[in-house]
Write a structure and sequence with these properties.
about 160 residues, alpha+beta, four-stranded antiparallel beta sheet, two-stranded antiparallel ribbon, 4 helices
């Protein structure tokens, strides 16, 4: 399998989506280069294993389907980060609020998928990730109000 041909094939499909309306968020979710890049690289700029990227490429259509139809959020995480910026050509540090929403659904009666949407500051929400979501934990779900496992920035 030629990974570059596969990546280009899915890039064309991804680029054709542009944006979709998400009923839960009551706004459009943008499919920009951030989400596509995150399928190939983790947030610390390490290239993902080829099998991981291929699996995520194959689940893209399911993620779009899920985000177009979901009316319920299963996971929510919010935190503040400092971002290097320039104000009047002088370096500065700006605090931005980062918000993640995780939507989980069974698509086409066979795939349990998690689609993650990210929002930085007052920007538009954008597609961040798609992950197969094989395991649920009722005990964990009852215990925590914020439902996420692992590092949501890197998954």
């Amino acid at each position: 399998m030629d990974i570059e041909k596969t990546k280009n094939y899915y890039y064309i499909k991804y680029s054709n989506v542009e944006k979709i309306f998400c009923p839960y968020l009551e706004t459009d979710v943008v499919f920009n280069s951030n989400g596509f890049r995150h399928i190939i690289y983790s947030s610390d700029n390490k290239k993902r294993p080829v099998n991981s990227s291929l699996m995520r490429f194959k689940l893209l259509e399911s993620a779009v389907n899920l985000l177009e139809t979901t009316t319920t959020v299963q996971e929510f995480f919010e935190h503040e980060i400092e971002i290097k910026s320039k104000t009047h050509n002088k370096p500065s540090i700006v605090k931005k609020n980062i918000t993640y929403w995780g939507f989980i659904g069974i698509i086409n009666h066979k795939w349990k998928v998690k689609a993650v949407v990210k929002k930085v500051g007052n920007g538009k929400p954008f597609f961040w990730s798609v992950i197969p979501n094989w395991v649920t934990s009722k005990k964990r779900d009852e215990k925590f109000k914020i439902l996420h496992v692992g590092d949501i920035e890197n998954d």
